[in-house]
Amino acid sequence: MALSALDDKSQEPRMADLENTLGRSFTYWNSLVSHIETTFPPLEKIWGFAAAKWGWSLRLKRKKRTVLYMTPCHKHFLVGFVLGEKAVKAAHACTLPDSILAVIDQAPKYGEGRGFRIEVRTMPELAAVKKLASVKMAN
């Protein structure tokens, strides 16, 4: 089974597919995309199918820099980030939940930074992801 609930390589996800898959979380998905579009224009939205293991995900990109990745799952979605060490330190300096800071700290370190995913099912998780996007883009 793919990480994404949308795993049919032959068809790029449509809004109706997202709404059916995400349920109540569809509102959070739209809120995050809208927030990123407004905060970091110009924004490019790119759907990608990496492999059968991963399924479809949406990359939000400002110029050459990826802001975040969004992966639709059943009734929720994952937001993927890659943060450099400067952004990791900035994340610790702002008011993010301890559970999110723990995910960041436990993420493996690579040359491009620490890669991790945050589940979004609730409004507080959505708020934390929006804040994390701002931290990333400021650092």
Secondary structure topology:
Elements: H1 15-22, H2 25-39, E1 43-49, E2 56-62, E3 65-73, E4 76-83, H3 85-93, H4 98-106, E5 109-110, E6 113-120, H5 123-138
Antiparallel strand pairs: 1-2, 2-3, 3-4, 4-6, 5-6
Helix pairs in contact: 2-5, 3-5
Could you characterize the architecture of this molecule?
- The protein has 139 residues and is of the alpha+beta class.
- It has one domain.
- The protein has five helices and six strands, in the order H-H-E-E-E-E-H-H-E-E-H.
- Strand 5 and strand 6 form a beta hairpin.
- Helix 2 packs parallel to helix 5.
- The mean pLDDT is 96.
Distance between the termini: 35 Å
Question: Within the largest sheet, what's the order of strands?
Answer: 1-2-3-4-6-5
Q: How helix-rich are the residues, as a percent range?
A: 40-55%
Radius of gyration over C-alpha positions, nearest whole angstrom:
14 Å
Query: How many distinct helices?
Result: 5
- Strand residues, percent: 25-35%
Quick summary:
This protein is α+β, with helices and mostly antiparallel strands and 139 residues long.
Features:
single chain; 139 residues; alpha+beta; six-stranded antiparallel sheet; 5 helices; 41% helix; globular
